[in-house]
Amino acid sequence: MSDAAVRPATAGDVGEIARIQRETWRAAYTEILGEHAISTLVGADLEGTWRETIGYPGTRVHLATEGNFTVGFCVSGQAPESEVAAADGTLPEDAATTGLIATLLVEPRWGRRGHAGRLLATAASGLREDGAERGIAWVAQSDHASLGFYRRAGWAPDGTVRTLDTGETMVREIRLTGTLDLRLS
Length: 185
What we know:
By secondary structure, the chain is an alpha+beta fold. It has one domain: 3-Layer(aba) Sandwich (Aminopeptidase), CATH 3.40.630.30. It is about 35% helix and about 30% strand. The protein has helices at about 15-35, 35-45, 45-55, 80-85, 115-130, 145-150; strands at about 5-10, 60-65, 70-80, 100-105, 135-140, 155-165, 170-180. Helix 1 (about 15-35) runs antiparallel to helix 2 (about 35-45) and helix 1 crosses helix 3.
């Protein structure tokens, strides 16, 4: 394997991030989200969205690279109250110290090479630096690959679920939570 690394994203990376999102969603999430949702993504201004995300205060975007190739990315930051609240809207005592892994994607052709683990460990380190003590992530219940990845990292469902309407299908998501004290082995 070529040199693998994780680095902070810059505004110059938005084209690659958008490409990875489009290609990965098409390959891995068409069945989950529906063809219409994926088709809408193709026409969206993802580059503009990612430019704003990279510049948003308190948000960290990291890229996974292998050699000269950008192969994945991760977005993390303080978990908004709406993401960390219980189903009834109540906030846990540690809401102010909970980080969110908002997105973690690795192109399927680059999978099983440690990129997702490096991205999660780097994001967890940044969240700890920002004062977070635990992390959360939302994963589609039918996304067995992502659920397995987070479980191998020691994260587990906390019992909170939500349903997203894509206009074509209903997607049930499970909230996972776990430690931010992750180390690569």
